[in-house]
Amino acid sequence: MPEAREAKCSFIICDEYFGPILVKDGALPLERIDIDATEKEQKRFPKSHPAHQGLPYAIDSSCTAKRGTNKSQGSVYPPPMCTTGKKKATNRLGELALIQFLTHTSAHPMSRAAYESSIKVVNKEAQHIKERARIDEDFCLIIASLIFPRVAILCNDIVKFITPKTDDYFKLTGYSSTKKDNRERVEKALQDYHFIFPVVWKKAAAAADGAADDAANPKLEIKFQANLPFHSGPIIDTINEKFFSKPRCLGRKYKKLFKGPDSHPNEFELPDTMVALVAVYFWARLHGWSSGRYVDAGGYTQARLETTYRGLLKFITDMRNDDEEQAHRVLHKLYLAVGADQAPVAALTTGSAMKVLQLGVADEDALV
């Protein structure tokens, strides 16, 4: 139900679409009004009626349907400031915008052929976006122009948050880090996507020629728990912070769209694209440390970033194809670990991810 801002947006759309017609003809004919039935109204229509099937239908003076908020309901027919029949015309776009505002409707300019052959025969749950996108290339371009800038902002926010998490998680900064150690850790992390698994630090065996020094300052060897893909601390922390920590976060707003497999419909999983998006910027940060000292982005191209992103998506797909039940258990556990199924929580620390997952002692057989 549009409010003032949506009515204004609709006016701008109508101005672009109908403006040339008004300049030429000086009038905007109103031939008929089609509406969707509400869920309650659908039940009152015969099963054969389009309204009962969730399809739009034409109305006339016999229509008693009202639209609007509970305290501000208005009759859809007759439209305010408009007439039908021989005098069917309104000659000002302001009147058209007012009609939309008073009746809580929106204008969707399109050709009659497109409406009759496509929009009119599609259930109301899909008609406005999916079906319009299928038949209207210009509509897709407009939607893309709105979405892409938001994606860029989200990606930038992910990079800013995951950067210090990555450095801390792999102990790449600080007095004890050396260039050689960093290079070895990062090389192993990037090999075969090891970085997506939780890190387990093990004491390395003492060298024979430096036993005393090693005993006082034992070297830590990095291992990865390979039975928990995408449960690495920075991935969990970033998904929690950027998608679920606040009411306006995308994950919180659209949580109802999450779903589980047919075998476990009530055990949700995170969207594959969400997981891969965070993981690829985790990879990018690690890639900058390949030499042992951080070098700013430039060692890889945008094409390689996209290739890695698609590779991570393929990893998830292959995981499901290999063992769908096991893959679901792992991905549902990830859904729970990021706080998607509970009240918002503070951003997890790199250590707390292990507690949320209740891993306890690492499975020695799963370490790589």
UniProtKB/TrEMBL annotation:
Chain ranges of the DUF6532 domain: 116-318
Protein name: DUF6532 domain-containing protein
Taxonomic lineage from the root: Eukaryota, Fungi, Dikarya, Basidiomycota, Agaricomycotina
